[in-house]
Design brief:
This protein has four helices and no strands. It is an all-alpha fold.
């Protein structure tokens, strides 16, 4: 292992451990935050599927993934908050866009997996 750097496969393990530890902490968030947090979670899932897609296509970069993960989550939650202040349902707009991107990334991931499978076994098409 390089000094001062964590191997990239440890990031998901560390994130899971951090999320699991937060789950067991004794605090509750206000119910009005549910919409913002769910939208931030959806933005995070969008970043994760985009990262998997980039990894399969061979152009994954740690910094791009991490910055996209946090920036997208914060921007999606901020968009929903601004929409609430203006009494406009911007939450739904962000939900539709992020959902569409997740489905697009999942379809590309499926195609990439199939391409890799065909490369390994050319007789199976």
């Amino acid at each position: 292992m390089k000094s001062g750097r964590v191997k990239s496969y440890l990031y998901p393990v560390l994130a899971f451990a951090a999320g699991l530890s937060v789950y067991f902490l004794p605090f509750q968030l206000p119910g009005k935050w549910a919409g913002y947090l769910s939208l931030a979670l959806l933005a995070g899932l969008d970043a994760i599927t985009g990262g998997v897609r980039a990894r399969l296509q061979g152009n994954f970069e740690d910094f791009v993934f991490l910055s996209g993960f946090f920036c997208n989550a914060l921007l999606a939650a901020a968009l929903a908050y601004i929409g609430d202040l203006l009494r406009i349902d911007l939450f739904l707009a962000a939900l539709i866009v992020l959902g569409g991107r997740i489905f697009l990334n999942l379809s590309i991931i499926r195609v990439e997996f199939l391409k890799q499978r065909i490369k390994k076994d050319p007789g199976r098409q």
